[in-house]
Amino acid sequence: MEIVLFTIAAIVLYIAADRGLNYVEMRRGARFEHRSFIFFTILVTLAVLSFGLIQKVAGV
Predict the structure, then answer these.
(1) The pTM of the whole model exceeds 0.70
(2) Predicted local confidence at residue 60, as pLDDT
(3) Are 25 and 55 in contact (CB under 8 A)?
(4) Does residue 32 surpass a pLDDT of 70?
(5) Is 23 helix (H, G, I), strand (E, B) or coil?
(6) Cα dihedral sign for 39, 41, 42, 48?
């Protein structure tokens, strides 16, 4: 069951990181030079935080 929970969380985090980065770039008026690195950093940070929270709450 936990694999399904983590997979759904990963999909949501991917979409959230992408939309968040697009929003910041839109407000800035230009794309970042190292966009993929920034996206990866946002995604990993969100994943570590949310997966830790999931483990704590679900007792996995």
Answers:
(1) yes
(2) 64
(3) no
(4) yes
(5) helix
(6) positive
Residue 9 near residue 51, CB atoms below 8 Å:
yes
C-alpha dist (Å) from residue 1 to 11, 44, 48: 16, 22, 19
- Amino acid, single-letter form, for residue 6: F
Geometric angle at alpha carbon 36, from 34 and 40, rounded to 5°: 120
Compute CA distances 18 → 1, 5, 7, whole Å: 26, 20, 17
Q: Is residue 2 very low, low, confident or very high in pLDDT (cuts 50, 70, 90)?
A: confident
CA–centroid distance for 51 within its chain: 11
Looking at residue 59, what is its pLDDT?
Answer: 77
| Domain boundaries defined on the chain | 2-58
- Helices 2-28, 35-58: inter-axial angle, 10-degree rounding: 140
